[in-house]
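HUMAN: I'm a chemist; might I ask for a sequence paired with its structure tokens?

ASSISTANT:
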Amino acid sequence: MHNLPSVTIDAGVLAVPHVDCAKDDAFQYVDRLLDWSQLLDEPWVAIYMSERASEALIDEELFPLRNHLRELFNRHGIVEYSVNDIATVAERLLSLTPSFETYYRVKDVLWDQLETDPDVIRLTTHNGLQSDLARCIALIAILRKHCAQPLGGHSLILRDAPKQVIQVRAHIHELEHSRDDIPVLPCPPEFFEGDVLVCDDFRGLIDCLDESAILVGASDDLGIDLAVRIALFKNAIAQGDSPDWSGVVVPVIGSRFRELCQQVCADQGDSVPPKILRSIVETIKGYNLPAVHALRTGPGGNDPQRMRGSEKAQRRDIDREFHLHYWECADGTVELASVVYHNDFSIPG
């Protein structure tokens, strides 16, 4: 899958809380850092940090982290984690290459009077971290407004995200970049206005992703798998569950499913992909069973069901016009075969 979903992690996420913080805040800091470290081993997301993240932490005497972590752990009696393990996670994140600026070919931005709604800049009291966060927010807002987004979107990870979308307003005096898709920006006293997707935990990140866009734009079956996994994860949350991302059971993607599914999506526009994903979730979860019918060898109601060895061919109504065809295996697993128009009763073997 090309054009991966991506995230930029704010340097403030790595900054160790003040030793006098509440014990719950200390544990939350560690848990969140470990949460984000799991992304390092995920093939479906690209992770970036600002090229100035390390400099901002050093200037504020927040890095190296080990002494700060040792004081924090001793003060709050944290023995569940080791100082070295947590410091190593932060160092791995800070050593990520390329930087956000390098990958997106934006060098710097000269701004003033930057405001966000809600105000997330002042989530940290350190001036250096505030300045770097404001710069990243301005750059991400410009890219989000004027440039093609990564498949599934780009999110900014903060220590605390009061809303999923923050509004951004600023005077942009100068933008250094090497892109050809950014127009002339409003000049002061006119304000640039945009927005940025933000999150502060893994569930929030998944909520920011657009599974329909990933389904339509996937260049391989890994992309289809990701879109379905996101849809199943979001459904579990909507049902009040606390799903484990790695434990989400995704159906097998048949050899022609992506091709046939994306062909229908290309013909029909934005309304169909969410319906396809909904029907896949219903299939995996066993919902809405009256919409499922045996896919038979002929048009007659008494014609035998199509079989592939012990596997049964099934047809689920997506709506009146479209249907999901899949193989129901003897062990209860599902193989997605195709998305078809109403009068198409074929199924890839």
